[in-house]
Task: structure prediction
Amino acid sequence: MRAGRTFFLLLFFGLLVTAATATFSYKYLKAWGTSTIELTQPIDIRVPRGVTLKQLSHIFEDQQLVSNALFFEYWVRLFSNYRNFQAGRYLFHSPLSPRDVATTIIKGEIYQPVVYSLTVPEGYTVAQVRERLLADNITSEEEFHRLNTDKDFLKALRVPSTSLEGFLYPATYNFIVLPEAREVIKKMVRTFWKELPKDYLTDISEKELSLHDAVTFASLIERETGRPDERGAVSEVIWRRLKRGIPLAIDASLIYGIQDFDGNIRRKHLKDKGNPYNTRIHPGLPPSPICSPSKASLKAVLQPTDMGYMYYVVEDIQTRKHHFSKTLKEHNTYVRKFVRQGG
Result:
C-alpha cells in the first residue's frame, strides 16, 4: 500500500517538475524570440525553396543570423508558422531578433539590390537630367532629344507641354535592373502625377490656371527661393504682377532662355525681346516651366501670402534671404544695399 502511494507521489512530483520545466522553457523561448543581437554588418542570405525548418535554422546559425539553431527551430514551431515562410533573397540589419527574421521572411520582403540610382534635386532642369543620364551612359544626346520632344510619348505620359520640362519630378530613383532612358523618364513623370497635391487640378482650375501654367508658376518659385518660409511671399509677388499685367522681372526665367549662359546677365540680355523667357520685357508667365518644381512649390502657387508685396531682392547673400517690399521706393533701398554687398 505504501509502495503504491510512494509511486503516485513520485509520479505527481515528476509531472509537476515537468510542467514547471515546460512553463519555464516556454516563457524563456518566447522572450528569446524578441531579444535582439547586433550584427557586425548587414547579412545577405537566401532562403532556398524546399528547405526544411531544421536545415534553415542551421543555415541561420552558421551565418550568425540567430544565436541558436535549435532555439530558432522550436521558437518557429511554437510562435510562428513555417508554412508561411517565402523563399527568396533577404537582407538583414541590426538590431535583429528571431521574430524580426521570421516576420521579414513571412512578409516576403525580398532584397533586390539596386544596380542604378538617379538623384534629381529640386529645381533641376531637363538639360541637367539629360547630363546625368549621359554621364551614366543611360542615354545619348539624340535619344534624349527625341524622347523629350516626342508628341506621342508626351501624350502617353499625360504631359501637357511640348517637352518634359517641369514634369520630371525631383526625387531619388532606384532601379534593380539597368534601365533605358524611356523607363527612367516614365518613372519620373509617374512620380510627378503621384506626388501632385490632392485635388490640385480642381484647385488650380478655380484659380483659372491650367496644369501647364501652374507647373510653370511653381518652377519660378522653385528657382527664386530655396527657403520654405519665402515660397508664399514669392507666390504673392507673382500673382499680384500677373493680375496687374506687370512683367514678372524674374531673372531665373531670363537666364533659362539664354543659350550658353556664362553666369553674367548683360544689358543686351535685359533688352532681348527675342528671348521669350525674358520676363523683364514680356508680361505674364514664361512659355513653359524652367525647372522641376518640388511639391512645396506646387502648393505655394495656391498658398500666396497676403501682405501687399510687389517686389523682392536678396537681403543676405550668405543665406539667400530676400527682403519683400510693397513699394518701389522701399525696394530700391534694398537693391542699393544688395549692390553694396557685392551682389
